[in-house]
Amino acid sequence: MSSTAASIHEGPLERKPIFWFYGSASVAYGIKDNAFSYLLLIFANQVLGIPGYLASLALAIAMIWDAVSDLLLGHWSDKTSSKLGRRHPFMYAALLILPASFYALFNPVIDLDPDSAFFYVLVMALLIRTGTTLFEVPSTALLPDMEQDYDRRNKWLALRHGFGWYGGNGIHTINFFFWVGAYGVTVGTGYAIYGTVGALIIAAVILLSSLGTQSVAAELPRPADTFRFREITREVAQIFQSVRNKNFAALFFYGLTVGIAAGLGTALYLYNTTYFFGFSGAQIATTGVFVLISPLVAYWAAPHFAYGHGKKKVAIGAQVFRLVLYPIPYILLLNGFWPDLGSWLSLAIYSVFIVLEVVGGIIAGVLLDSMMADVVEDSEVVTSRRSEGLFFAARGFAAKAVSAGGIIGAGTIVSLVGLDGVTSFEQVTNEIRYDLAMLFLPVYIGLYLLALAIVSRYSIDRDGHNTNLHTLSGKETRDAVTLAGTSAEHDQPEGMA
In 61-214, which ranges are E strands? Predict the structure, then answer.
């Protein structure tokens, strides 16, 4: 490893600029994820006039495309040999696609009618998700090369998740104070401002993070085996060889299951807060202010608890914690034990639940990503190939492929309970609230419980990771000795071999 890359391991991480450039990259993903998770369904439905089931279908198609392209791009970046490094050519390419398409989604560049709106949203969603893949997958995949320590990886990813939350939740909070919240969820003006500001921030983040990590990335080892387009069947075979790892499978199928639940919950978030609990735009934004506490708590808590109890146990515990809390406000409201709908007391109680749930969610997300980083060496022992781009892409593939199902489910629920034609809180009946909760909560919680049962089969702990590092170190030594011996034979004068 070069002196520049090796210097990362000397002293506290917080004093290393590369630590902050790596972590801050997720601001771009946080903004895009906020838009797709919370805004896009209600924007397409209530501003562009696309029916809920059709709007969710457009988002689902884009997710499926994104999920498939993630795998190929992740594997391609693993096997790219460039003076910029394995990852950066893709990261710079994202700068050409993601900001412009994000802007155009919320600021339509052509006149739309009910027929063309569906196809416009679909095309913009495809472009945005492709641009996100080009940046987020290679950027995240830098970590296993830069940091091999079992516990220090948690800190890198805690920072990255924190920036992702501050990016997404920060613009969400401002949005509901001044833009969508001020103009109303059925008015396009607020969304247009949101899209413009979001695109500018995304462009700045991609440029700064890419340049800030460039020097270290360029000095990391290049792959000996590069991607060959003319032998695509060979590349696909290598993908399948890598993903057969049993620990990867536990994380992959966890992601598949959680993807449905997350897609369902986030797509219904604004419907729930606006129509179920009766919060105004300013109140939704206030909840966002409180949630700014959560990443700070998780940044300390995730590495701290994982050091003493292990990544898997703490990740599962954090998810169980948030799942216990999640349905309580809905149950209390439906049984008459909740303050007046839309009141500030209601908001204060709701915000406490949300802050605690987000802390649990971030801790789990940090440690599950760190567990995926540990799969890289576990796989390399068998395949002799580093596949961090593929693994992190496949993690995204799992979540995106089936969160499409969650979004379709959300759009279907919106139509089934009668929210398609609802434009104000006063139009919502208690029957609609009851139907919404009864259709949503059992599926959401049940999927998460199934996912936790799946991830419990993951088996890499600190000792297992260190054993993998020791095995790979011995293999590198043997390979170096073999190479030196071969070179010596070739260097001998003719007749002396």
Answer: none
Cβ neighbours of residue 221 closer than 8 Å, sequence gap 6 or more: 1, 145
Number of CB atoms found within 10 A of residue 257's CB: 22
- Domain positions in the chain: 16-221+232-463
Amino acid at position 462, single letter = R
Q: How far apart are CA 460 and CA 246, in angstroms?
A: 10
User: What's the start-to-end Cα distance of the chain, in Å?
Assistant: 34
C-beta pairs of 185-193 under 8 Å, 24+ apart in sequence: 185/42, 185/46, 185/270, 185/274, 185/281, 186/46, 186/47, 186/423, 187/47, 188/47, 191/39, 191/43, 191/47, 191/106, 192/106, 192/107
CA quadruple 263, 250, 451, 396: dihedral, nearest 10: -10
Express each pLDDT in 24-53 by its tens digit. Answer: 999 999 999 888 877 888 899 889 988 877
In whole angstroms, what is the distance from residue 179 CA to residue 170 CA? 13
- Stretch (H or E) spanning 345: helix 344-383
Q: How far is CA 16 from CA 4, 11, 135, 430, in A?
A: 11, 8, 22, 54
Q: What CA–CA distance (Å, rounded) separates 407 from 259?
A: 10
Say if CB 423 and CB 186 are below 8 A apart: yes
The fold for domain 16-221+232-463 equals Growth Hormone; Chain: A; (1.20.1250)
Rounded to the nearest integer, the mean pLDDT of the chain is: 86
One-letter identity of residue 443: V
d(CA 210, CA 136) in angstroms, rounded, equals 11
Model pTM? 0.79
Q: CA-to-CA distance for 105 and 162, rounded, in angstroms? A: 26
Smallest CA-to-CA distance from 146 within 213, 67, 240 is with 213
- Token look-up 């903004």 returns 31
Cα 15 to the chain's mean position, in Å? Answer: 26
Q: At residue 90, what is the residue type?
A: F
Cα 184 from Cα 281, distance rounded (Å)? 7
Cα–Cα distance measured from residue 119 to residue 439, given in angstroms and rounded to the nearest whole number? 29
Q: Which two tokens stand for residue 110?
A: 């052509």
What pLDDT does residue 402 have? 57
Is the pLDDT confidence value at 366 over 60?
yes
**pLDDT for residue 485:** 55
Residue 179 φ/ψ, nearest 5 degrees: -115, -95
Could you give the maximum distance between any two Cα atoms of the chain, in Å?
A: 96
